[in-house]
Amino acid sequence: MSERYRSIVDIFMLLQREEDRCVLLLERAGNTYASGQLCVVSGHLDAGETVLSGAIREAEEEVGVRVDPADVVFSHLIHHRSPEGQGRVGVAFLARRWHGMPYNREPDKHSRLVWADPAAPPPDCVPYTAALLAAVAAGALCSLHGWPDETSQSLLLLPHAGGTR
């Protein structure tokens, strides 16, 4: 019998402006993974919390906004494999309404905030983030990223039940 698969769970909160559909990105800074590259509001799921509460927590921790769970929709599931071979599952949520003005609450971890079109993310995005944004922009609910099999790199296009989002 094979060993049961265990994975790190990443959580993403895509804060998207209504007027232009741009999403908020943070430039990572300091002595950390992907320093100098852009990522969305994100983090790891903590023990005992749901993916939704974790994503809402990250929005408040990283950019100081409060998101009402009623204003959040599921956006995407991504199964990522790092270049070192570590698998992880990312769950992304989207909010177009929140309370407060986003600002950098973690200047030791981030140097600036950037609004960007998810269909055309800046070239300095973390590759995992760029893959997530491309999948969301394509309307996919689930995707794979970083796996060695070339065919697994394509999006798993599962249209939203009501058509395009």
Keywords:
globular, disordered C terminus, 165 residues, Nucleoside Triphosphate Pyrophosphohydrolase, 8 strands, 8-stranded mixed beta sheet, single chain, alpha+beta
What spatial order of strands do you see in the largest sheet? Answer: 6-2-3-1-5-4-7-8
Strand content: 25-35%
Number of strand segments: 8
Biggest β-sheet description: 8 strands, mixed
Residues in helices, as a percent range:
10-25%
Q: List unreliable stretches of 5+ residues.
A: 161-165
CATH architecture label: Alpha-Beta Complex
What is the string of SSEs from the N terminus onward? EEEHEEEHEE
CATH topology: Nucleoside Triphosphate Pyrophosphohydrolase
Q: What is the arithmetic mean of pLDDT?
A: 90
Structural domain tally: 1
Radius of gyration: 15 Å
How would you describe the overall organization of this protein?
This protein is an alpha+beta fold and 165 residues long. It has one domain (8-156): Alpha-Beta Complex (Nucleoside Triphosphate Pyrophosphohydrolase). 15% of the residues lie in helices and 32% in strands. It has an eight-stranded mixed β-sheet, with helices on both faces.
What can be said about this structure in brief?
This protein has helices at residues 51-63, 127-137, and strands spanning 8-15, 23-28, 38-44, 72-81, 87-95, 110-116, 142-145, 155-156. It is of the alpha+beta class.
List the helices and strands and how they pair.
Elements: E1 8-15, E2 23-28, E3 38-44, H1 51-63, E4 72-81, E5 87-95, E6 110-116, H2 127-137, E7 142-145, E8 155-156
Parallel strand pairs: 1-5, 4-7
Antiparallel strand pairs: 1-3, 2-3, 2-6, 4-5, 7-8
